[in-house]
């Protein structure tokens, strides 16, 4: 059953992941038979009249059919998780929101689906990414254990919820206000579970549901936003810097470096434009 309702986001369709996959197939013209059970379901619910989808559903179908890229933003925090997937086309975007969903889509997920104009993509992404409006001046880059990177990259919720505050407590004990006040405060906030994690992926639409594309991993507090990088990535972006807590030879596997919602979006936008 697909339910249509009015919300602050406009007209939203609530459905299961399985129904959403069928809707994508319908948008791609793969369910052309009017007697197909899913087409009959849409017609029976008044979402398709004759052979014509109602306008709000037509906007979602256009977002699916014309999408060239798929942007996934997965939010994880002590309070819970949320996945938002954007099917990005030249004019419109189909938005899929799944509260309590993991990084990877599942047919049993319950989704809220709606369409936006492509000009609204940046605003909607930043709003749903839960990064807020940090007011800090940024932290000093800090070496971190590999597990922090890999847990965010895999979307491993138990590991993330265990390792993020654990790593933060260890770092906060070493980095205090005398070393760098902003950096010490950031890790203390994370240790106190006042944080949100964000995993972002961009793939070509033809590759979805695979998420093996460009990826970003972010940890944020109310004051600062930081990107989690591999040692190689950090060296490419900051060739003249060695992060705090690197070993005596300056070696490390992963590091956290200051970022911002705007910087993250600029990086994402560059990949979407490719």
Explain this structure:
The chain is built from nine helices and 13 strands. With 274 residues, it is an alpha+beta fold. The protein has an eleven-stranded antiparallel β-sheet, sandwiched between helices. The chain has a two-stranded antiparallel ribbon with strand order 3-4. Helix 5 (146-154) runs antiparallel to helix 6.
Uncertain runs are none
- The total count of helices amounts to 9
Rounded to an integer, what's the Rg over CA atoms? 21 Å
Largest sheet: 11 strands, antiparallel
Per DSSP E runs of 2 or more residues, the count of β-strands stands at: 13
Mean pLDDT: 93
Q: What is the chain-wise order of helices and strands?
A: EEHHEEHEEEEHEHHHEEEHEH
Strand residue content: 25-35%
Could you say which structural class the secondary elements and strand pairing correspond to?
Answer: alpha+beta
Keywords:
13 strands; 30% strand; alpha+beta; eleven-stranded antiparallel sheet
Summarize the structure.
The protein is α+β, with helices and mostly antiparallel strands and 274 residues long.
């Amino acid at each position: 059953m697909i339910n249509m309702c009015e919300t602050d986001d406009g007209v939203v369709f609530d459905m299961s992941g399985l129904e959403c996959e069928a809707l994508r197939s319908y948008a791609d013209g793969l369910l052309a038979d009017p007697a197909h059970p899913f087409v009959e379901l849409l017609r029976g619910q008044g979402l398709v009249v004759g052979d014509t989808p109602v306008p709000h559903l037509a906007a979602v179908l256009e977002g699916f059919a014309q999408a060239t890229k798929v942007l996934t933003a997965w939010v994880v925090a002590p309070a819970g998780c949320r996945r938002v997937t954007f099917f990005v086309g030249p004019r419109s975007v189909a938005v899929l929101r799944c509260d309590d969903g993991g990084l990877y889509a599942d047919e049993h997920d319950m989704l809220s689906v709606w369409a936006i104009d492509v000009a609204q993509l940046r605003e909607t992404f930043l709003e749903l990414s839960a990064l807020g409006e940090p007011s800090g001046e940024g932290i000093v880059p800090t070496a971190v254990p590999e597990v922090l990177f890999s847990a965010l990259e895999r979307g491993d919720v138990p590991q993330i919820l265990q390792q993020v505050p654990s790593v933060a407590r260890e770092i906060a004990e070493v980095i205090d206000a005398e070393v760098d006040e902003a950096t010490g405060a950031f890790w203390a906030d994370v240790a106190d579970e006042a944080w949100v994690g964000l995993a972002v992926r961009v793939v070509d639409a033809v590759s979805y549901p695979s998420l093996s594309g460009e990826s970003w991993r972010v940890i944020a507090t109310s004051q600062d936003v930081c990107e989690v990088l591999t040692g190689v990535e950090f060296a490419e972006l900051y060739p003249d810097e060695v992060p705090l807590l690197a070993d005596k030879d300056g070696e490390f596997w992963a590091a956290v470096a200051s970022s911002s919602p705007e910087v993250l979006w600029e990086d994402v936008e560059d990949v979407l434009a490719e």
